[in-house]
Amino acid sequence: MKVLVPIKRVIDYNVKVRVKADKTGVEIANVKMSMNPFDEISVEEAVRLKEAGKAEEIIAVSIGVQQCQETIRTALAMGADRGIHIKTDEDIEPLAVAKLLRALVEKESPELVILGKQAIDDDSNQTGQKLAALLGWAQGTFASKIDIQNGKAEITREVDSGLEIIEVNLPAIVTVDLRLNEPRYASLPNIMKAKKKPIDEFSIAELGIDAAPRLEILSVEAPKQREAGVMVDSVASLVDKLKNEARVI
Amino acid sequence: MKTVKKNTSSSIPEGFLQEIHKIVGKNGVITNLSDMAPYLEETRGIFVGSSPAIIRPKDTLQVSKIVAMCFKENIGIVPQGGNTGLCGGSVASGELIVNLERMNEIRSIDAINYTITVDAGCILSDLQKISEENDRFFPLSLGAEGSCQIGGNLSTNAGGTSVLRYGNARELTLGLEVVLSDGRIWNGLTGLRKDNTGYDLKQLFIGAEGTLGIITGAVLKLFPLPLERQTVFVANKDLKSILKLLSLARNCSGDTVSAFEFIPRIGIDLSLKHIPETVDPLKDKHEWYTLIEFESGSSESGLDTIMEMFLNEALINNLIIDGVIAQSEEQRHKLWFIREAMVLAQKPEGASIKNDISVPISKIPEFILRADKAVKKICPGIRPIAFGHIGDGNVHYNLQQPLDLEEESFMSLREALNRLIMDIVQSLGGSFSAEHGIGILKVPQMISYKTKIELELMKLVKDTLDPNNILNPGKIL
Ligand SMILES: Cc1cc2nc3c(=O)[nH]c(=O)nc-3n(C[C@H](O)[C@H](O)[C@H](O)COP(=O)(O)OP(=O)(O)OC[C@H]3O[C@@H](n4cnc5c(N)ncnc54)[C@H](O)[C@@H]3O)c2cc1C
Ligand SMILES: Cc1cc2nc3c(=O)[nH]c(=O)nc-3n(C[C@H](O)[C@H](O)[C@H](O)COP(=O)(O)OP(=O)(O)OC[C@H]3O[C@@H](n4cnc5c(N)ncnc54)[C@H](O)[C@@H]3O)c2cc1C
Prior knowledge:
By secondary structure, chain A is α/β, with parallel strands linked by helices. Chain A has one domain: Rossmann fold, CATH 3.40.50. Chain A has helices spanning 37-51, 68-78, 94-108, 127-135, 188-194, 235-244; strands at residues 2-6, 9-11, 33-35, 57-64, 82-87, 112-116, 138-149, 152-159, 162-169, 172-176, 186-187, 199-203.
């Protein structure tokens, strides 16, 4: 079984994001970028499937600027076999990402695509679902457990009311949640080995996809600053504030 | 637990605290025993302090007035910061405690001059944060940074994890404001990098542990914000290869190594046993590990390539056996957490004798070899945990009690064990206290290991600046 793992290069989870002065987006110059944390989990899961003898080849795909190749190298160091980089300097919306991935699925014929449930920069939570719809494949979203047996995948999903267990036929799309696994560190010998693994490059045009944006960003604003708390000197004044200022009681 | 020996200063006269109250206002004096407790307790629980009151001035003028009153009445003062010091320097034995926690303003920041001027009571981590918000970097960093104050850091000449690249607190200081023992204020708050006008007075107060004056303000050096960091955690077969690795790292990175810490296997084992959420990042067990960090002020400096070249070279030369590179800030924090967890894990494992020694870097393997042998001879089963800032020649040579020995019998060996270690340190040209200072804890070692002439000179300085011996009496000398 071939597994395709799309990975996105995003602003590092620990970086304090700043809005650009002209409000067209967030500052990414000189900012630490890393693999989307959910995608690290997808890579880890794919590598575990391979280690368990359930997958033969893992292909890590990233769409974006040249430096996405560093992100692909990380996936290769974690255990992916080869990379595909779809190079573009434009921001690509989830639908276009899904279409690009469909084009790759048609080329590579994987039986499983494992994606993060969302990317932490846009929080769209759309790509996996859109890809499933475009391909007409089954989907199991927000997976906290994946069990592959006899051409089927049993997927435990985290839903509001608890856990839901579904079974889907392969080929399928799975999007992963935080509790699925703990991604491994890339070890030195594997980082060195990853340097020799191949990364194929495509342009969007080569894949014949119209990736033009359909949304226009009007303005990006920082969240309102929270006001500092105050110490109240008595219960009475607390009640008064809750009643008259906060109007919650 | 020891109670500290009484100082010679007078007891507090009638009405004195009322006068102080007038100076520092309603919240400036604490005399309630339970509220005083955090100021009297000491980090390691070795000493128990006592004091008639905790005075919390709001500005330099208030400090000056308080000290002037104490000078007149011959009342002892213990200057106190975050009370995180590890040698009992901020423990009072009947003296008044003057804590600067309410003096926590950033006075100014001059980004072009790469300096920040602060009240001495600023918490170290606040200072780091504000520098960063101004696109500047204040490199001093240590485990207690969330509670220690900059005044305490300067008074102990604190080191920490970035000494290798940026130096210790002394090297980060350009100017000071100090209240002298008679209450006069010396304003030496210059931000000058070159100022050869006579004696460099600030150096006297840095590392003086509050025995020569109370530091109330400081001008500190800032640096360009590191925009790229590479953090690796590697396994090593022995200490000699760690030293070669250090040279290699410095040479092939253009000296951008900002941290180089070593960790023994037992440190990892104890962390895994006692501290939740520690993970061993490597598959196999190894004797030694190093945590190395490289830093660059540019995100396009090719630091990743440099580091990989370094690691490649190190692998080829068998200086490392295995390792991981942090792929995200999250992983970087986790790797550093191993280093911190190891310190925390020593407590639940039983009694531990702490040491903070330094020797020339090249002598570290010899030191550890000889010290291990010596301590095991008089205490079979003892578990040395040698770790620390190997890039600075600074080893925390801690001794964990044997599994089959009572805590008390182990601690009764403390002096004998320390003596053995310090004699080896001395013979290698090292220091018995690398970064934590003297306080009360290491006063006996001062007498054993400092030369007569050094002690005489120090005494001379002390008598000149604090003729009545009211500033932190009984500490250092
Ligand atoms: C062409 C030129 C260029 C210079 N450029 C610079 C520069 O770029 N930067 C800079 O900082 N300076 C510069 N200087 C001045 C600089 O201070 C001196 O060159 C040098 O540091 C002094 O060393 P010296 O051995 O000549 O000392 P001297 O001139 O002999 O003595 C200088 C002082 O030190 C004392 N002294 C000397 N030796 C000792 C000792 N062993 N113990 C105690 N006290 C001692 C002397 O009593 C005297 O007070 C320059 C000078 C010249 C002529
Ligand atoms: C978890 C932990 C990790 C640590 N790691 C390191 C480390 O890596 N490197 C290192 O060097 N140290 C380390 N330390 C010890 C370190 O020296 C102190 O944490 C810190 O520098 C002391 O600051 P403080 O504000 O707590 O000072 P305090 O403990 O309050 O005082 C220390 C000494 O300075 C004097 N003093 C305090 N403020 C003033 C002032 N304004 N004017 C004059 N004298 C003053 C006191 O009288 C006392 O003698 C560590 C401590 C802990 C608890």
